[in-house]
Here is the input.
Amino acid sequence: MKRKVCDAGCVRALAAERGPLGRSGWQQGMTWECPRLFLSGCRCGPEGRAPGRLAFCPVADFEWERSGSETGVPLMLTLNQLQGTPPARVVIMGAGGFVGRATLARLRRDGVEIVPLTRKEVDLLASDAAQRLAAQLTSSTTLVLTSALAPVKNPAMLLDNLRMMQAAIEAVKAQPVAHLVYVSSDAVYADSRAPMTEASPAEPGSLHGVMHLAREVMLKSELPGIPLAIVRPTLIFGPGDPHNGYGPNRFLRLARSGKDIVLFGEGEEQRDHICIEDVAEIVRRCVVHRATGVVNAISGTVTSFRTVAELAATLFEPRVRVTGSPRQGPMPHGGYRSFDASLLRRLFPDFTPVDLRAGLERMRATDSR
Here is the structure.
């Protein structure tokens, strides 16, 4: 690795090729780049940051972080404000949803001025959606987008979600904001037997994943001048879940009502589950650090659905039975979907995800009130 310092003191580097385009990389200063790009530039010097050039910040060390593999772990989220400071104003579009409500509650604890928008205030499918949303924005606003029709089950829902995002984009074009945070999904990733990172291929195998990836591309291509952070949560559990999907939320509700928990197959699939409070905390940290780039909202631990069901069953008396059932099709994601949490640990060393058992116990206590 060769390193040079420009007149303004910024680190510039040229790296030997380490792998296929987009699958490996390094953290130089505070910017993620691909080592197949042999361009260099300087953010602080007279060259400025031109399109297609790399720009590196002199306040951070040049680093290649290895993870036991030849390609290493890329650091894809930039914290542009190292000392996290809540912004003056946050607009949450989708504040009535699962993630939106939790994010609203978490940011309120910081004393932030928040404008919560639900479908009642701004229906993103209405003809006047862009104008109504733009009227709530200012140049100093951080906009958090959590609004979606989910999960996407058919092409009509996919198209509606894209129309919703187009309305949001038109609003930001009419009134640019200081920062935008979009809550996407881990469904954008291709299946893999290896733990996935933020650099894993975005090749969705479902309409839900296609929707979120298309929305991400829309934001990046249509709003290139707006600082953008993308949060990709895995399966979310916690109080207030409106979906009752297969997993912790449904299992706990069945156990509470005294009904047996019936698994798909024997519940042998292993998945990562993250508590809604942790998703809200990661979104909050992206907001207060003015983050740009991509981060997965994950726990970094995989658990089988049978284990989750057994945990839920132990929380109530009389204890319900957990039984298997004939599987009607192949296991989703090949029965295994795990994540490498190195990026979260590196950026936020004080962040500890809620343990699955502890999260279920919180749900039991909250839902019983």
